[in-house]
Amino acid sequence: MRKIILAGIGLLLILGALYGAKLLVDSKNKPKPVKEKVIKTVITDTVINSNIKIVVPANGNLVAKQRLEIYAEVQGIFKAGNKLFKPGQEYKRGEALIRMDASEHYASVQSAKSNLYNSIASIMPDLRLDFPDVFEKWQNYLSGFDISKTTPKLPEMTSDKENYFITGRGIVTSYYNVKNLEQRLTKYTITAPFSGILTEALVTEGSLIRSGQKLGEFINPSIYEMEVAISKTYSSLLRVGEPVALNNLENTESYIGKVSRINGSVDATTQTVTAYIEVKHANLKEGMYLEANLDAKEEQDAYEMDRNLLQDGNQVFVVNNNVLELINVTPVYFSDSKVVIKGIPNNTVVLKKSVPGAYSGMRVKSANN
Fold it and tell me: What confidence tier does 293 reach under pLDDT thresholds 50, 70, 90?
């Protein structure tokens, strides 16, 4: 009896082991749970082709359009004036910038004038006897001769005899010597050719000024020019007088200028053309660095998008039935952040922001829906 019970227990254990093994095998054959695909949400835009203005960026420093480097043509002591010769000092047109002591040269001018007067006076008796018809005009010239004023022009000589007589007495030579000295006398005073401001002063009152010495710089602060280099590709599209948008580096201030001049030659090294932009504004100063945006041309039936959306230089992603597809396009202009392209049909849905890991055939969902 005992043997029968033990045999039954052993059989039950064997059957239990077999059933457990079967359950274990069946559990391994269960299908793995399928992960649900994540569909990315993208920002899209609908293409409407239009006329896109090609804006060429450029930059440069402002330089006063009217500027004067002041140099001395004579030597003398710098005399003090009504205004100090210092940077920042303003002067009106015709106002004296620098006066030099010209007393020695002035005495030479007066001496030369006196010699001219005496030379003419000495020939008056001969003119009365030999040239009575011209005596009166020379007499009037002497009567109007004022040694303290600018020497008047000599009377016009109407005959060869008169010309030979006057020239032979050295009067014409004396006259031009006097005019030369008078002209040099004016160089002892340097006047402002336009209203402006002194930006550099290299001499002070009382110092000795030498001929050829640079004395300072004077500018007109009301109008400036900016020199910019433009690619020769767009140089033929620029026109003198076209408006130009300008702004500072911080983009806190903007100005409107215009193209004033365009150089006719191309720089052989950089293959660029120099254009000059004229701008007026009370806040501008010489030397300021500005950025310019020049309207070069207008591209017909084009679309502008972020440059990082362009794939392999000539493809972009479009969304077709919530699936990304690549289409070929034709880029026509690149800027730092944008690209102008042609070849996208109207009403095509394209990506507006780049999608990391995007590929053709990828399922997406538009955030615009």
Answer: confident
The architecture that CATH gives domain 42-52+299-366 is Beta Barrel (2.40)
Domains of the chain: which residue ranges?
1-30, 42-52+299-366, 56-64+221-297, 67-101+188-219, 104-186
- pLDDT tens string 69-110: 999 999 999 998 889 999 999 999 999 999 999 999 999 999
Which tens digits make up the pLDDT trace of 253-284? 889 999 899 888 888 888 888 889 999 998 89
Q: Are 52 and 298 in contact (CB under 8 A)?
A: yes
CATH of 56-64+221-297, picked from 3.30.70.20, 2.60.120.260, 1.10.260.40, 2.40.30.170, is: 2.40.30.170
Rg of the chain taking only CA atoms, in angstroms: 46
Q: pTM (2 decimals)?
A: 0.67
Amino acid, single-letter form, for residue 174:
S
